[in-house]
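[job 0412] stage=complex_fold ligand=SN-glycerol-3-phosphate status=START
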Amino acid sequence: MKFFLDTANRDEIRQAVALGVLDGITTNPTLVAKEKRPFREHILEICEIVKPGVVNAEVVSTDTEGMLREAHELAGWHPNIVVKVPMTLPGVQALHVLAREGVRVNVTLVFSAAQALIAAKAGAYFVSPFLGRLDDVAQSGLGLLREIVEVYRAYNFPTQILAASLRHPIHVVEAAKMGAHIATMPFKVFEQLFKHPLTDRGLEGFLKDWEKAREVLGEIVEPAGARKGGR
Ligand code: G3P
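[job 0412] stage=complex_fold status=DONE, emitting structure tokens
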């Protein structure tokens, strides 16, 4: 499973890159607006930070013509950019054109298996079901993911399933169990994946016991000049 960070914040992205398990970034107009910087410059900077990982950048036009103009512009900025279009009729028309041109498209704001089926048929590179937002309206986000996985497997669609709007580690683990290709998550959820209270408690115990026997144990790395022969 690939991990994407759902953020446009450069500090968060740098921290995640340093941990060595990040495969890409998803942004949306809300996340980009928070950063208050020129869009092109900001996206290109993110591309440099996460390369060779992909960076998903979204169009803001709502008509097909406008989406196509923006998509061509975005795709031309950097080879690692994947263009996000919304799951609307004009969005699918734009997807149809872009897919035939070889532009990689992420169909976003997907809330039903029917929409995911359309996105795959029209040539989406990624499809983004929003799990958390579905949970918010008392429908099952994971249930939707299960349906999409089943439909795509039945027809061997090459479209990659990008589980989005993930709110906690259980979303990530369940999506992995189902075989979603990618999980995109806020930095907070990414951090939570690394942590367990028993890890902290276990380490605390190990270090206390080591400290008690330190005089006998000595140091793993002797201070410079302390070894025999003065090396
Ligand atoms: O970026 C798409 C999606 O992940 C948004 O998530 O948390 O705003 O529902 P959220």
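Strands lie at 2-6, 24-26, 54-58, 81-86, 105-110, 126-129, 160-163, 182-185.
[job 0412] exit 0
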